[in-house]
Amino acid sequence: MKYIEKLRNSGLRPTKQRLQICEILFETKKTFHFTINDLAIKIKDQTKNKISLATIYNTVHAFEKKGYLKQIPINSSQTYFDTNTTEHHHFYDLKEEKLIDLENCDVGPINIKKKIDGKKIKSVEVLVKLGD
Amino acid sequence: MKYIEKLRNSGLRPTKQRLQICEILFETKKTFHFTINDLAIKIKDQTKNKISLATIYNTVHAFEKKGYLKQIPINSSQTYFDTNTTEHHHFYDLKEEKLIDLENCDVGPINIKKKIDGKKIKSVEVLVKLGD
DNA sequence: GTTGTAGTTTATAATGATTCTAAAAAGGTG
DNA sequence: CACCTTTTTAGAATCATTATAAACTACAAC
Q1: Helix (H/G/I), strand (E/B), else coil: A121
Q2: In chain B, which residues have their Cβ closer than 8 Å to the Cβ of A127?
Q3: pLDDT one-digit tens code per residue, A34-75
Q4: In this structure, is the CB of residue A36 within 7 Å of any atom belonging to strand C?
Q5: Which of B74, B108, B130 is facing A121, going by the closest CB pair?
Q6: Nearest nucleotide over every DNA/RNA strand to the B57 CA, judged by C1'
Q7: Alpha helices in A1-132 (DSSP H)
Q8: Which domains, from first to last, does chain A contain?
């Protein structure tokens, strides 16, 4: 199974629970945004198998560390993750508290002119807040 | 005092505690980043007067709502605020967990091509993560 | 100034996301 | 199968933030 490789790459053994998490995260080509709580609910609904929060946190964080998931920088009480790990940006609808993808072509190229000695740019993320 | 106006504009009566908070936040032209906890410590050190956390949270949030402070979108357990409310962007040093200002001229103009019906862009914020 | 009331401050409790823990369960190797 | 390590899990612990309710204060009306 294709998920086993992802898990091993992330330093995780392929267990039943982790494979179920993979199925929800990576089954579809369509990427999406989620919080740990969203994911826990989805798992409970789709698999009838409750997976404990600790396991979900562990697995998601391992994927994030390996680059299979990305955190979305946003001020919210919960952490948002994105299954789309390509460089892209987001609208955040302040009223509905919803994230919307901005494809890379929706934003002109971003040119960071300042450099910090000894440091490399690891990511450039744009958050566009929307009001009415 | 110049702070009284800021407080009244934010819908707050000028009290001793709030004026002390203003003095720390707005005394200097040099802007800075802080968390609520940073601010609480600064207050205790500089004024010898402990102000309760609830008051600090209330005051900071009122200023943020009015636009005298800005939240910095970043994934961290604490919320970061900025006394620089002009449109500008940030480096975030992942190892040292420190924010560094990027002046507007350090980043080329950002052109958001996508539009969402009925929504207005309220802010555009860029976070550049730095690693070694 | 005194008084009244609505707004404030405060310590403390409550909340909620996340992390930790330790015991039970499962993976993987010989 | 037997062993040892990793994993899962429920529940406890942590920590930032928010709510509460009682004591206090600003300030307007008198």
Answers
A1: strand
A2: 73, 124-127
A3: 999 999 999 999 988 899 999 999 999 999 999 999 999 999
A4: yes
A5: B130
A6: D17
A7: 2-9, 16-26, 36-47, 53-66
A8: 2-81 (1.10.10.10), 87-130 (no CATH)
Q: Where are the beta strands (DSSP E) in B36-106?
A: 70-72, 80-82, 89-93, 98-102
Q: How many CA atoms lie within 13 A of B57 on its CB side?
A: 5
Q: Is the CB of B77 under 7 A from strand D?
A: yes
Residue owning tokens 């600090």: B56
Q: How would you classify residue A31: left for phi > 0, otherwise alpha for psi between -120 and 50, otherwise beta?
A: beta
C-alpha distances in angstroms, A19 versus A3, A54, B95, B105?
Answer: 7, 15, 32, 47
Tens of pLDDT, residue by residue, chain B (132 residues): 789 999 999 999 999 999 999 999 999 899 999 999 999 999 999 988 899 999 999 999 999 999 999 999 999 999 999 999 998 999 999 888 889 999 888 998 898 999 999 999 988 999 999 988
Enumerate the residues of chain A whose CB falls inside 8 A of the CB of residue B33: none
Stated length of chain B: 132
